[in-house]
Design brief:
Helix 1 runs parallel beside helix 10, helix 2 packs across helix 10 and helix 6 crosses helix 7. It is globular, with a radius of gyration of 19 Å. The protein has a 6-stranded parallel sheet with strand order 1-11-8-7-5-6. A 3-stranded parallel sheet has the order 3-2-4, with helices on one face. The chain folds into 2 domains: about 90 residues, Rossmann fold, CATH 3.40.50; about 130 residues, Rossmann fold (3-Layer(aba) Sandwich). With about 290 residues, the protein is an alpha/beta fold. The structure holds guanine.
């Protein structure tokens, strides 16, 4: 079994990005600038956003964190979005999800300029991605595709079972894996909460991508020997023995599944760090594209 080391791979990616930023700097060009908007005080969201901002510093990007209070109105958030759209210094930005319940997430995502939508959540980017046109690919599926490529995993004609149909992970990765390409061309089944006999389906999978958010959902009796296992789950479970009082667990029963797998991502340290690296990659792409 080979561990798909997202920490190491994301470090390599960040070094490559940092080298490109250094060249831009030497040429007297503007370096990429990412902004992140967060509304409210959700602990997990604050952690993710601060990791994204920290990663910007590591590669030499400029970054701006826009922290808005929980009671921010939809109008005020939309104003901020319009301001970021107009601000020529900002190459790309994200609005961290979930947003407070009184804000219509869809309205906000639609207001983001697709050229600055480095999350790839705008319908224009999603549609372009599905049609294999230039777009921003959402960071988590983009990170999974990078892991497959950098570990030279054969996906040609393989049966990939994706569990979960979210707009951020399950749906886009099912599209990407089925597209033409060296690390794609898979036959994809998209399983979800209404899927019948999910165990029988996953047992047929050469590649399993689980993006459900249910700890230990994928057990060893569901796995075909030699399967590639990608665990996208990141659930916080209480654990008084840790300094933070919680630990992060994936969807996969790692200890029992790993011995049967050919490749497997750990949680933490698998897909998570790749997501941040790919957000940086998208921001670099936004910078380059805006130069024409
Ligand atoms: N919430 C959970 N994942 C993400 C992400 O990738 N981007 C944003 N904006 N919010 C998220």
């Amino acid at each position: 079994m080979v561990l798909l080391d997202g920490r190491k791979t994301s470090q390599e990616l960040k070094q490559e990005i940092a080298a490109e930023v250094a060249v831009l700097r030497e040429q007297g060009k503007k370096v990429p600038h990412l902004a992140a908007v967060i509304v409210g005080n959700d602990g997990a969201s604050l952690t993710y956003v601060s990791s994204k901002v920290k990663a910007c510093e590591q590669v030499g990007f400029q970054s701006t964190l826009v922290k808005l209070p929980e009671e921010t109105t939809q109008e005020a958030l939309l104003e901020k979005v319009y301001e970021l759209n107009q601000n020529h210094d900002i190459d790309g930005y994200i609005v961290q999800l979930p947003l407070p319940k009184h804000i219509d997430e869809e309205k906000v995502l639609l207001a983001i300029d697709p050229k600055k939508d480095v999350d790839g959540f705008h319908p224009a980017n999603f549609g372009r991605m599905a049609l294999e046109l230039e777009s921003f690919i959402p960071a988590t599926p983009f990170g999974i595709m990078q892991l497959l490529e950098r570990y030279d995993i054969d996906t040609q004609g393989k049966h990939a079972v994706v569990i979960g149909r979210s707009h951020i992970v399950g749906r886009p990765i099912s599209i990407l894996l089925s597209q033409k390409g060296e690390y794609a061309n898979a036959t994809v089944t998209l399983a979800h909460s209404r899927t019948k006999n999910i165990k029988a389906l996953v047992l047929q999978a050469d590649i399993v991508v689980s993006a459900l958010g249910i700890p230990n959902f994928v057990t060893s009796d569901m796995i075909k020997p030699g399967a590639v296992i990608i665990d996208v789950g990141i659930t916080r479970v209480q654990d008084a023995s840790t300094p933070k009082g919680y630990r992060i667990v994936g969807d996969v029963d790692f200890d029992n599944v790993a011995p049967k797998a050919s490749y497997i991502t750990p949680v933490p340290g698998g897909v998570g760090p790749m997501t941040i690296a790919m957000l940086l990659k998208n921001t670099l792409l936004a910078r380059k594209r805006s130069e024409g």
